[in-house]
Amino acid sequence: MRGFVRRVAFVALAGIASAGLLASGPAFAESEKGARGGMPSSGSGSPDSSGTSDDSSTDDLVEPLDIEGWIGGAYRGMEDEVYCEVSDDYGEGTVLYVGWDDLGFYVLIEDPQNLQLEEFSEFDTEITIDDFYRRTIEAFALDVALLDLTFGDDPEAVEAFRKGVKLTLEQWGTWYTLYGLGKAIPELEACYRRHNS
Q1: How far apart are CA 188 and CA 192, in angstroms?
Q2: Model confidence pLDDT, tens digit, residues 18-65
Q3: CB neighbours of 87 closer than 8 A, spacing ≥ 6?
């Protein structure tokens, strides 16, 4: 996924603008793992049955990963770089991708129910993790329903995602559970170092 969307982003960086917003309502939980909250829009969701776009299939799988139910692997991109990424399906086309690449730690949120973005736009957005981490960060819309949050080597962000239970996108009033990332994040970093040393 990451290698594909980063290539798309670099090609389309020319038309940077602000993102559109979608008002959302009260949160709901679907399950202990892979839960999300927010008022769904009238979006149609993803075309395939799993709810994922599976763009990582355009890159070569180097090593499979299954960490606390987060599935993915180490992938070799077109420029021979290796990035490590896992994802979790939240239902109705919503998927979180978490990974490590040459830019550091990142989170991609694909949510056709709640995100209505201007494709290839760059903007600031506020995120919170539980009640201990709140930041306004630069975000990038890779598609109308695909949000890229890149944290690089920010140790506070990495630690917040590792220890946190719930990520909230304040702009949309929607949230996503982070169960299993406590173990997945250190393994993703180790995976990246292992394949790029």
Answers
A1: 6
A2: 333 333 322 333 334 567 675 443 332 222 323 333 444 568 999 999
A3: 1, 52, 70, 71, 72, 95, 96, 97, 98
**190 in a structural domain:** yes
Our count of domains for the chain comes to 1
Residue 46 lies in a domain: no
Range of the domain at 160: 2-39+51-195
Is 45 within a domain? Answer: no
Cα–Cα separations (whole angstroms), residue 32 to 8, 36, 59, 74, 187:
33, 10, 31, 27, 22
DSSP calls for 160-193: HHHH-SEEEETTTTEEEE-TTHHHHHHHHHHHHH
Amino acid at 152: G
pLDDT digits (tens, 9 = 90+) for 137-186: 999 999 999 999 999 999 999 999 999 999 999 999 999 999 999 999 99
Token duo for residue 21? 């917003």
Q: Please, which pLDDT band fits residue 78 given cuts at 50, 70 and 90? A: confident
146 vs 69: CA distance, rounded Å: 22
Q: Is residue 186 part of a domain?
A: yes
Whether pTM exceeds 0.85: no
Place of tokens 């201007």: 118
